[in-house]
Design brief:
This protein is α+β, with helices and mostly antiparallel strands and 471 residues long. It is 28% helix and 42% strand. A 14-stranded antiparallel beta barrel has the order 1-2-3-4-5-6-7-8-9-10-11-12-13-14.
Length: 471
């Protein structure tokens, strides 16, 4: 909806009073916003700018009778020369948000215009300049015709600043208007989980069909499967809101029903910085992780992470890298210690307001202390995110990668060569403002030139999470 809300257009080919061609993505809800803008401009005597807004409303919803009547009314008087408001509409439609801001500001200088204030604030929000967006949005909020629309975008600004409670109240006010009922209710629920301090608790259970990763021929006698119960507690602090410095801590414990040697105890802490603007972001992070297995120390690691993402309309591209200095604590595992790193690029296409598809390609390598244990891998991955209404989300992914060990393993007598097929299906359903039901099914099939290292693993889980935001 947000993309459509920002897609104001002035059609050049038809005359300013002609009916416009239908938009490629009709949206009756958003059409009502432009109809309200047209009403405000017509009441102020700006017939040409009112006509532009009515035409956009009719492009999004040709059946909007009020917009059709408004267009007819705006075209009864003499036409005026193009003004800054119309130029702002044109620049907005072309994607020049900064030029549109200047034009709407000029329109507001010429005469008071809540419509220009609203659209200027929307452009500034889209550019990521939240501080500059507040004054025009508050000005538009004082006008009854634009009060709900301005509240909606003021809520988005508050949400990005980490002000969860204020954002929730603004979204609730906006959702009283039918134009924002669905989006406002969704975002109000999200806002109650957001804040400068966020706490979450996850409890889940599952069954790993092959904890020991035994080859298929030995699974019947080896009893490789086991049930487990796990809990994870996490805290996230963002003193300046979504964009800026942050700190994160997490603690997790997993108890195996039968294979106690695989009970897991882990903790991690991280500090980082997220710079986000106009749908683009850069991220840098340092983290420390500790894992105990079966009641004894297993692994400690220092991790560096960097990533970035650029939004290009409905398409977004990203690149991430992480490097981890791994130190295994038991003498038998020390040769596996070393530096492991993975780089991954992706391109995602938004196919609906809550749905997208993405393609990834990754390259990784592990430089272990013992050369025979080092490896390199690469391969593709595909992902689909599907929103089934406001409360249900599904993620499906499948990946395939090749792993090669350059050195000859002295115990196996060969240089290993493995391939992996991975698949996952994850679902979430919101049970309320802070409770979420989670289901997942993860599977992996491994092939190897060493038969005893080929296996199949399936791991379904069921869990429930509680998340709350403060400040």
């Amino acid at each position: 909806m947000l993309a459509l809300l920002l897609a104001l257009a002035v059609q050049a080919a038809p005359g300013p009073c002609d009916l416009p061609p239908p938009a490629s993505h009709p949206d009756p809800t958003t059409a009502e916003i432009y109809r309200a803008v047209g009403d405000g401009e017509l009441a102020a005597g700006s017939r040409d700018t009112a006509a532009a807004a009515y035409r956009r409303a009719l492009a999004l919803d040709p059946s909007n009778g009020a917009a059709r009547a408004g267009l007819a009314s705006s075209c009864r008087g003499p036409a005026r020369a193009s003004d800054p408001f119309q130029e702002g509409l044109r620049l907005m439609e072309s994607g020049d948000r900064r030029g549109a801001v200047a034009a709407f500001r000029a329109a507001r200088t010429a005469r008071p215009s809540p419509s220009a204030a609203l659209l200027e604030g929307i452009c500034l929000y889209e550019l990521g300049d939240d501080a500059a967006a507040l004054p025009p949005l508050r000005e538009a909020e004082r006008d009854p015709a634009h009060r709900e629309a301005a509240s909606f975008f003021l809520g988005l600004v508050a949400l990005r600043a980490g002000q969860g409670e204020r954002a929730a109240s603004l979204f609730e006010f906006a959702s009283a208007d039918v134009r924002f009922a669905a989006a406002g209710a969704d975002l109000a629920r999200l806002a109650r989980r957001e804040g400068r301090l966020m706490l979450s608790l996850l409890a889940e259970s599952g069954y790993d069909s092959n904890v020991l990763l035994l080859p298929s021929g030995r699974q019947a006698s080896g009893r490789p499967g086991d049930a487990s119960a796990a809990t994870t507690m996490a805290a996230l602090a963002r003193p300046l809101g979504a964009s800026g410095p942050y700190a994160r801590a997490a603690f997790s414990y997993r108890d195996q029903a039968r294979l106690d040697a695989y009970d897991l105890l882990g903790g991690s802490g991280a500090v980082g910085w997220l710079a986000e603007r106009a749908g683009n972001h850069l991220l840098a992070e340092y983290a420390y992780e500790y894992t105990g297995l079966g009641g004894i120390p297993y692994l400690s690691a220092h991790r560096l992470f960097a990533g970035g993402r650029a939004a290009l309309g409905r398409i977004a591209v990203g690149l991430t890298w992480f490097g981890r200095f791994e130190s295994f604590r038991q003498a038998s595992d020390v040769p596996f210690s070393g530096f492991r790193q993975v780089a991954e690029g992706d391109a995602a296409l938004r196919i609906a307001p809550r749905s997208s598809i993405a393609l990834f390609y990754r390259y990784g390598r592990d430089d272990a202390q013992e050369a025979a244990l080092s490896w390199q891998e690469h391969g593709p991955r595909a992902e689909a995110r599907i929103g089934l209404g406001a409360d249900v989300r599904l993620v499906a992914e499948v990946g395939y990668h090749w792993r090669r060990y350059p050195g000859v393993d002295p115990f196996l007598g060969v240089a290993r060569s493995d391939t992996y097929l991975d698949g996952a299906l994850r679902g979430e359903m919101d049970l309320g403002d802070r409770w979420t039901l989670r289901l997942s099914l993860v599977a992996q099939r491994a092939w190897s030139n060493v038969p005893n290292l080929a296996y199949v693993m399936v791991f379904p889980t069921f869990g429930i999470a509680y998340t709350i935001g403060f400040l």
